[in-house]
């Protein structure tokens, strides 16, 4: 007996391949299908030599029989090889007639049972295709010299082969359609019962920007869609475990794309059972609903904004109604007061009354008229807001209006020990003046005693007029203002002024 080798044996795989009794071709993994090598048995069966066919495209080395216009062997073999390239799976063909060329150039009728299988590298990429055939010519034809029973058997084999080929074609169509639905529809995967990924469809990988190699074989909840958030990972793991236990799961969750962007998925995890009812695989699916959820959120925000706008409009209507009602309530006592004042003025016109009393009565009457005008203006604005009237602007004598406004504060200013100087010569143009100027003038009385206040109106341009209030004093420090209980009254101001010390200069001015 020979001595048994003690170490690893280095096999000559090239020699093993060439000497194999099976008919093999090794083809390149492109659509030209170049012949890379062939077994010796294949060379003998096809009347070829290795050096003559290696490097040639398969269908250049083995064309269809030109004398057989119905030949389909080349077309069928080409379709099978393309399916191997596309799907990366072995493809078994039905018995095919594929005549071979003899050394004299004529073609010999042959029948083959082919199978094509991919050879993949570590990264899953197809490197080669192994084309294995079995010569079944003896079974199918027996060189047309068999007896009647052999002919019957041959025809039966051919019929079954054709039926098998048609069944395979229909099965391929259904499989391709299912694969298209699987790849192009929802995000979908198949998981083992421990949660690791068996398969993942194209949409879940390509749309989200992941690599299939980084997903297959990993626990589903550790894949890139979920692993940026521990809370989301725990949620997905619970869904898978629930499906493994036989209970379907569905819900919406945050998930992530390869670029880190956040999206929302309508997620389901379904158990798949065999005939005995045992869960054999888990299928998670998902549909991106980010746009729908955001649209619903925007709709809710718009609805909330609409409700706020309606509430504000209701408040505005209430305000307008209040102004309208309060204006009417103010006008009644004002009308009565003004009527009494006018009667008093007529009664004292013929009597001997000190001018100062008459001036005070006239001041009260003018301010009452002004207050009535303000109330009427308020009522007009409430009508404008209610769209029952439109504002009409009227020309105003700015100089006269400024003189009247300033004179209304003369008594209060003089009681404060100030001097009021009104410098409002007639102007060539008229203007509409804001009633806020009255408030500006009233703020001027908060100046130290022995100061003076000036009010003047002048025309700067034809469409631009200016009214200014000023004083001869300098700013008063904040610590020197009257205490809160003075309420801006002149007596309180003077009492406080006596405690403060020597007068200083203050200035208050404004313009429109």
Identify the overall geometry: rod-shaped
Beta-strand percentage range: 15-25%
Distance between the termini: 126 Å
Task: Please report the total strand number as a whole number.
Answer: 16
Largest sheet: 6 strands, antiparallel
Gyration radius, rounded: 52 Å
Number of helices: 15
State the low-pLDDT regions, or none. Answer: 432-451, 459-465, 480-512
Walk me through the structure.
The structure is a single chain. With 512 residues, the chain is of the alpha+beta class. It is built from 15 helices and 16 strands. It has helices at residues 13-19, 40-45, 50-53, 58-61, 73-87, 137-140, 148-184, 202-206, 230-244, 290-349, 355-385, 398-407, 410-415, 436-442, 490-500, and strands at 23-28, 35-38, 91-92, 96-97, 100-101, 107-108, 111-120, 126-135, 187-191, 197-200, 249-256, 262-273, 279-288, 419-423, 452-461, 464-471. Strands 1, 2, 3, 4, 7 and 8 form a 6-stranded antiparallel beta sheet that branches. A 5-stranded antiparallel beta sheet has the order 10-9-13-12-11, sandwiched between helices. Strands 14-15-16 form a 3-stranded mixed beta sheet. Strand 14, helix 14 and strand 15 (452-461) form a beta-alpha-beta unit. Helix 10 (290-349) packs antiparallel against helix 11. It is rod-shaped, with a radius of gyration of 52 Å. The model is unreliable at 432-451, 459-465 and 480-512 (pLDDT under 50).
């Amino acid at each position: 007996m020979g001595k048994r080798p003690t170490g690893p044996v280095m096999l000559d795989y090239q020699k093993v391949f060439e000497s194999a009794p099976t008919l093999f071709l090794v083809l390149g993994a492109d659509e030209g299908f170049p012949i890379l090598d062939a077994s010796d048995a294949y060379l003998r069966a096809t009347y070829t030599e290795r050096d003559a066919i290696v490097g040639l495209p398969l269908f250049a080395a083995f064309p269809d029989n030109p004398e057989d216009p119905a030949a389909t062997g080349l077309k069928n073999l080409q379709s099978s090889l393309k399916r191997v390239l596309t799907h990366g799976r072995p493809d078994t063909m039905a018995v095919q007639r594929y005549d071979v060329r003899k050394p004299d150039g004529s073609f010999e009728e042959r029948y083959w049972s082919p199978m094509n299988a991919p050879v993949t590298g570590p990264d899953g990429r197809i490197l080669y295709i192994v084309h294995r055939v079995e010569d079944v010519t003896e079974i199918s034809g027996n060189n047309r010299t068999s007896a009647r029973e052999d002919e019957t058997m041959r025809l039966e084999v051919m019929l079954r082969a054709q039926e098998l080929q048609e069944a395979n074609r229909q099965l391929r169509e259904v499989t391709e359609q299912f694969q298209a639905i699987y790849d192009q529809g929802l995000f979908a995967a198949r998981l083992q019962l421990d949660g690791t990924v068996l398969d993942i469809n194209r949409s879940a990988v390509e749309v989200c920007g992941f690599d299939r190699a980084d997903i297959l074989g990993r626990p589903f909840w550790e894949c890139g869609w979920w692993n940026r958030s521990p809370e989301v990972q725990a949620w997905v793991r619970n869904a898978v475990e629930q499906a493994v236990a036989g209970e379907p799961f569905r819900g919406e969750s945050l998930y992530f794309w390869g670029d880190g962007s956040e999206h929302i998925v309508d997620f389901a995890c379904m158990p798949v059972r065999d005939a005995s009812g045992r869960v054999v695989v888990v299928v998670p699916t998902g549909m991106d609903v980010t746009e729908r959820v955001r649209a619903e959120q925007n709709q809710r925000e718009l609805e909330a904004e609409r409700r706020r706008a309606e509430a504000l409009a209701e408040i505005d209507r209430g305000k307008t109604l209040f102004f309208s009602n309060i204006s009417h309530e103010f006008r009644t006592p004002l009308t009565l007061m003004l009527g009494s004042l006018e009667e008093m003025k007529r009664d004292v016109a013929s009597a001997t009354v000190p001018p100062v009393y008459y001036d005070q009565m006239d001041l009260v009457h003018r301010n009452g008229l002004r207050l009535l005008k303000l109330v009427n203006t308020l009522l007009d604005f409430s009508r404008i807001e209610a769209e029952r009237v439109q504002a009409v602007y009227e020309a105003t004598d700015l100089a006269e209006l400024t003189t009247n406004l300033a004179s209304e504060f003369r008594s209060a200013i003089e009681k404060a020990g100030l001097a009021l100087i009104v410098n409002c010569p007639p102007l060539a143009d008229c203007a509409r003046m804001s009633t806020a100027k009255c408030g500006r003038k009233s703020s001027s009385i908060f100046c130290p005693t022995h100061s003076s206040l000036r009010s003047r109106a002048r025309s700067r341009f034809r469409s631009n007029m200016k009214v200014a209030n000023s004083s001869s004093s300098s700013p008063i420090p904040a610590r020197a203002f009257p205490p809160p209980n003075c309420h801006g009254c002149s007596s309180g101001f003077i009492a406080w002024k006596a405690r403060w010390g020597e007068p200083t200069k203050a200035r208050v001015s404004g313009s429109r």
